């Protein structure tokens, strides 16, 4: 707008000079509309920081932190301990933080919690807001507030993490550029869902002081084997370029249902993501192109050990291709499930819509979770003594620590937390592993491999 006003001023000055030079005695040109009395453009009015009268003020978004790594302040949120062959995390208080998403604008906080945060019933969020656990722009939140753009929401929860195997995270190789580990099954690579401290990233930071790592590739939570991290951004970009140029060879082993065909078998079926939220894929013509080469290594009369070489990196590619071939992984909880129909998805035959499939998979997952619940046990100490029941309006400080201990520490019991009123059975060893193992990763000038797991032995038989 400034250049337009400058152009008007030049025209006005030219008109005045023309009148003086020609001896024109006519009246001066009228002041151009929009100019002030002195002929200058109007100054831009500054908007009040508090907005219009009666409107709720929303502060501008805060500057985003440039760091993407986890540090000591994160590792000290809680501690873990070992019990019955499992690594367990002491329940701790954690802040979920987010800015208002576009689809939430115009909705009340109550509607958003009801529609998109179904982990807890709406009554829980009402009680949490009353106790000061839910805040909007760092102020106590009223769930009937209508959300606006840039609203900042904070929800303090009492977090319980599922246990994982106590098997140690073994470092296969480490230098100035990379660190390579042999990931045990059941441990996620990075924080996701209910997992945070029981992840490879946090264990490496807490136990090995390895931080600022760059993820090169990922493995599913139940998959074991070779997992690589870059220590520098340059090395991360270098290996990523090698992957894009198909210079990296990946080799996996798995145990599948039945007698897998002898000889080399290549599957080229495209894979489509059915649901990113649930994490389910299937073979579909609209999917992305894929290529996996399989080779049977042994057969024990019931199941086969198969070598897998994925030449593309689609989500669940190996598992989906094995399902399509009619030989799903023996204990795959998703792709060897009855939700896929009598043929378990072989040949791409499902016989139901994607929505129906997802609903059945979620129901099977719920049924697997329900038997883990035991009758509630009375607390080991009175609620008003030691580190017993917490004041719901002010969460107590969780115990901090980096090392693991034997036996369960006494964590705080939270009166708003539904998990604190439940006692879950420990998972069995079979619940913590899927028979899929990352055996070897090889690049132009590097190669890393891990030992075969026990279930990959030719004479192995399931108990």
Overview of this protein structure:
With 463 residues, the protein is α+β, with helices and mostly antiparallel strands. Mean pLDDT is 83; it is low at 20-25 and 371-402. Strands 8, 9, 10, 11, 12, 13, 16, 17, 23 and 24 form a 10-stranded mixed sheet that branches. The protein has a 4-stranded mixed sheet with strand order 7-2-1-20, with no helix packed on it. A 4-stranded antiparallel sheet has the order 3-6-4-5. The chain is built from 8 helices and 24 strands. It has helices spanning 2-21, 72-75, 109-116, 122-130, 200-208, 233-244, 317-324, 354-369; strands at residues 80-83, 86-89, 92-99, 134-136, 139-140, 152-159, 164-165, 170-174, 178-183, 214-215, 224-230, 249-257, 264-267, 271-275, 280-283, 292-299, 303-310, 373-374, 389-390, 404-406, 413-414, 423-424, 436-442, 447-449.
């Amino acid at each position: 707008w400034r250049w337009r006003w400058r152009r008007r001023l030049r025209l006005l000055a030219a008109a005045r000079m023309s009148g003086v030079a020609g001896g024109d005695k006519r009246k001066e040109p009228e002041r151009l509309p929009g100019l002030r009395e002195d002929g200058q453009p109007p100054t831009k009015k500054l908007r009040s920081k508090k907005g219009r009268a009666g409107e709720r003020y929303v502060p501008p978004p805060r500057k985003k932190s440039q760091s993407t790594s986890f540090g000591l302040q994160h590792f000290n949120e809680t501690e873990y301990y070992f019990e019955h062959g499992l690594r367990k995390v002491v329940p701790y208080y954690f802040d979920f933080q987010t800015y208002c998403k576009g689809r939430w604008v115009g909705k009340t906080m109550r509607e958003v919690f009801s529609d998109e945060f179904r982990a807890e019933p709406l009554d829980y969020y009402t009680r949490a807001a009353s106790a000061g656990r839910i805040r909007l722009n760092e102020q106590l939140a009223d769930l009937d507030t209508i959300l606006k753009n840039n609203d900042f929401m904070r929800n303090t929860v009492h977090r319980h993490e599922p246990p994982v195997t106590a098997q140690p995270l073994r470092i296969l190789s480490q230098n100035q550029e990379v660190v390579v580990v042999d990931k045990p099954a059941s441990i996620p690579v990075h924080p996701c869902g209910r997992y945070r401290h029981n992840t490879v990233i946090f264990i490496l930071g807490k136990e090995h002081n390895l931080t600022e790592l760059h993820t090169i590739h990922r493995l599913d939570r139940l998959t074991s084997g070779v997992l690589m991290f870059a220590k520098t951004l340059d090395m991360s970009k270098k290996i990523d370029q090698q992957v894009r140029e198909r210079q990296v060879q990946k080799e996996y082993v798995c145990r599948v249902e039945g007698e897998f065909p002898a000889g080399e078998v290549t599957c080229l079926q495209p894979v489509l993501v059915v649901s990113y939220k649930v994490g389910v894929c299937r073979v579909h013509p609209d999917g992305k192109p894929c290529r996996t080469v399989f080779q049977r290594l042994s057969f024990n009369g019931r199941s086969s050990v198969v070598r897998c070489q994925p030449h593309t990196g689609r989500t669940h590619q190996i598992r989906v291709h094995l399902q399509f071939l009619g030989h799903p992984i023996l204990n795959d909880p998703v792709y060897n499930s009855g939700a896929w129909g009598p043929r378990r998805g072989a040949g791409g035959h499902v016989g139901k819509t994607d929505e129906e499939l997802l609903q059945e998979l979620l129901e099977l997952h719920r049924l697997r979770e329900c038997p883990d619940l035991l009758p509630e046990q009375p607390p080991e100490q009175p609620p008003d003594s030691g580190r017993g029941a917490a004041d719901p309006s002010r969460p107590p400080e969780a115990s901090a620590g980096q090392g693991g201990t034997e036996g369960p520490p006494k964590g705080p019991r939270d009166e708003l937390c539904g998990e604190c009123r439940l006692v879950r059975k420990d998972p069995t060893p079979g619940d913590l592993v899927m028979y899929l193992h990352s055996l070897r990763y090889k690049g132009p000038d590097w190669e890393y491999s891990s030992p075969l797991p026990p279930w990959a032995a030719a004479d192995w038989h399931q108990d």
